[in-house]
Structure formats: C-alpha cells, structure tokens
Amino acid sequence: MDTQGNGNGRKWVFLDMGNVIFYDLPLLARIWRYFYLVLKEGGLGLSFEEVLREREKLLEKNSPEKNPRKMIVDKFAGHIDKKIVDRAVNQWLPVYPGSNYPVRGIFDTLTILQKKYSLGIIANQPPMAMDELKRYRLEGYFKHIIISDVVGYHKPDPEIYRYAVELVGARPEQCLMVGDRVDNDVRPARMAGMRTVWLNMDYRLMDYQPADNYERLYIESYLRITGIDQSYKGSEYEPDAVITDLEELPQAIESISAKQEVAG
C-alpha cells in the first residue's frame, strides 16, 4: 500500500466482521434455529434435519443472497399464517445479541496491526453490531466502523468501499480489505481500487462448540455447502494474498506493501 498522501502517512486496513472478527456460524445457526422453531409452532410439518437438507438443495442452485429461508417458506409454509412466516424469516434480530464469538487470534492480531496501521471495519451488519464490539472491548481498535445498515450501502456493492475510502481521506491503493468472502469482500473492494486479503478459514478448526443439537446440525450442514461463490482464478479480482489463519495477516500485509514499493 502506498504510504504517501494519507494524512499522517499511516496505511488503512479494513476488516469484515463476520468470520474475521466474529465467527458467523454461531449466529447463523441461531437464526436458523429461530426460523425453524417459529414455523414449527405455526404448523410446519418438517423436521429440522429436513429443513437443512432443503437448504442444501436450494443452495446448490441459488446464491445465499436469494435467502434460502424465504424459498423454504414459499415451498412448504403456504398453510401457515403470514404473520408467523414474516416473523420466522425477517424478525430474527432478537437472537443477534450474544451470538457473536471472537475469532481465535483476533485480539493479538489487532494489537499488532494497530501499531502500524489505521484500522477500520466494513461490514454487512445491523446497528447493534456496535454493541457486540463493545461487549468484547473491540471497538477501541478501530478509527472508523462502517456498518451497512447505518450507511445505507451493502456488500457486494462497491460503493460501500468507495464510501470508506472517501471517509478516511485516503486513496484506494492506500487501503486494504480483509474479508472471508470473495464475492462480498475481495471482488467489490478490488473494483473500488483497494488491495485485498482473503481469509479462507477452515471452520472445522474454529474454537467454538455448538450450544445445542440445532447448532450442531446447522454447522454440519454449512460445512457441507455454503452456497457462497469463492471463485477467483483467472479473473481480474484475485486477492493480493490468501491466508487461512488470522496470525498470518500481519505478514501478508507486509508482503503486499513490499511488492507495491518495488512496483512503484
């Protein structure tokens, strides 16, 4: 990253929240548990395992942005009261508080990074994400926290990245995005002119234990199929670095910076 022209000369590193700062899977598991239990109370005749199998079938043919929960109710919940269906699909925010668990190594990694870089967050999250950051005393590491539901831009729209660059008063090449998704993080950040690191974590190794059988079953289903497009080979949107663990991030950023200095 270019070190000139950015106020005090410090470079900017932005992080996603889901699967970079907090594990996504506990929250997703609780959203699906809530979804199922509300529908079951309303008369859904499927088991949770059957719902998850349907999820997997749908994601084989559709992106997760099409909302597999909505597709499931369209197929199986026509007899259920529409208010109950709406509650199951759309009113899951009460499960959000307390469902975010820090990714292993996040505190040590942020402590290292903040000594050399200005840090920020760019994330698709509800406003209460700030409360989760405060819960774990993480908000103090970041100079700017850009939450989609607050600023009105949502990934994969590159505008959320352009907004971040303008907000911090930097040039795009002075900024780097760290995310877990090629489709939501790497491609649009590259389109906005930023450098990128893809954190391709093996979730089988995450240090989180499911709280109940619903969570266990959902996580097993997610590990079978995510539905997320992580392809980049041969495209112009390849990440500048790929890592599998947060502890690799500081060195990855250093290597990207060194390559830029040589190229420049």
Describe the structure.
- The protein has 264 residues and is α/β, with parallel strands linked by helices.
- The protein is built from 11 helices and 8 strands.
- The chain has a domain at 11-23 and 100-208 and 231-263: Rossmann fold (3-Layer(aba) Sandwich), CATH 3.40.50.
- The chain is 44% helix and 12% strand.
- The strands form 2 sheets. Strands 5-4-1-6-7-8 form a 6-stranded parallel beta sheet, with helices on both faces. The chain has a two-stranded antiparallel ribbon with strand order 2-3.
- Helix 1 (25-42) packs across helix 10.
Helix content: 40-55%
Largest sheet: 6 strands, parallel
Uncertain runs: 1-7
> What is the name of the CATH architecture of one domain?
3-Layer(aba) Sandwich
Within the CATH hierarchy, at the fold level, what is the topology of one domain?
Answer: Rossmann fold
Q: In the CATH hierarchy, what is the class of one domain?
A: Alpha Beta
Q: What's the structural blueprint in terms of helices and strands?
A:
Blueprint: E1 11-15, E2 22-23, H1 25-42, H2 48-61, H3 68-76, H4 82-90, E3 101-102, H5 106-113, E4 117-123, H6 129-135, E5 144-147, H7 148-151, H8 159-168, E6 175-179, H9 182-191, E7 195-199, H10 213-224, E8 241-243, H11 249-263
Parallel strand pairs: 1-4, 1-6, 4-5, 6-7, 7-8
Antiparallel strand pairs: 2-3
